[in-house]
Amino acid sequence: MTAALIMLETPMPLNLRDLQHFLAIAETGSFTEAGARRALSQPALSRAIRQLEDRLGDRLFDRDGRGARLSPAGARLMPIAVRLVREAELGLEDVSAFIKGSRGRLCVAALPSLAATLLPGPLAAFQAEYPDIDVKILDGLAMNVETAVLEGHADLGLTIRPLPDVDLAYQELQEDLFGAVRANDRQSPDTIDTWADLAQVPFIAMALRSSVRQATDQAFLQAGVFVRPLYECGHLATVGALVGRGLGVTALPQLTLRLLPEPDLSWTTLDAPITKRSVGFVIRPDRRSPTVEAMIRHLAT
């Protein structure tokens, strides 16, 4: 049998221990030294190599008074054994690192306002502690954040408090207060203190499916007023630009202000009712891995 056919005609797969024994002998050139390295007696090591040779169908070492030298078949096996043992060791290291949370992948879904405000600081601290973990960010509407976590596309979601029937664990990070946003240098009422006051001015609203719009509609309902928006916008930047040009007033949670492009805007708390949104993170209880736990720790700090 030629050396090239050794691996093709093997009747059963080699195990990692056999290859480690083989490499120890090849590296030391001695069964005695290799046995000491592998914590095996010389007879036990010789028996293991003989069984390996029987399995392959050819001898792996030529023995003489100076020790053990690789045979042609052994020389052919050598690079294969080195590669297989190294790949196995690296694979086990990766699994161990994943279990410990020091390597792997983390996907975070987030509302855009939370991705831009609550996430950067904790994420920087997390990446400094776990530089070998790849992080992916999905930013979108609240319902999309919940769906991403529920379906396993994301490991963790930054969002508002979900409805009770959503099968996700939720932990609040903070409350986000709503207020009126208007341009400082445009003519508008001297005071906008309540939600009812917003009914007296042109109102610029977020899109119907957004979590902000749902909260503002609920606040108007509680205030007993009906407001027909002059404009409805899907992006905060658009809302901010329209308000900045004096085209109307809007109501936004405080965390969104950093996303507005216009610098000369004022924000004042709205009463009657005082409106807040609970913001935090959601996870699936069955996906609480060490990596997720580490990110949660940084978010909660």
UniProtKB/TrEMBL annotation:
Keyword field contains Transcription regulation: yes
Signal peptide, first to last residue: none
Molecular function as annotated in GO: DNA binding; DNA-binding transcription factor activity
Keywords carried by this UniProt record: DNA-binding, Transcription, Transcription regulation
Chain ranges of the HTH lysR-type domain: 14-71
A cellular-component GO term for this protein: cytosol
TM region positions: none
Gene3D superfamilies named among the record's database cross-references: 3.40.190.290, Winged helix-like DNA-binding domain superfamily/Winged helix DNA-binding domain
InterPro entries with a match to the protein in the record: HTH-type_LysR_regulators, LysR_HTH_N, LysR_subst-bd, WH-like_DNA-bd_sf, WH_DNA-bd_sf
Record-stated family: Belongs to the LysR transcriptional regulatory family.
UniProt-recorded name of the protein: LysR family transcriptional regulator
Species per Swiss-Prot/TrEMBL record: Brevundimonas intermedia
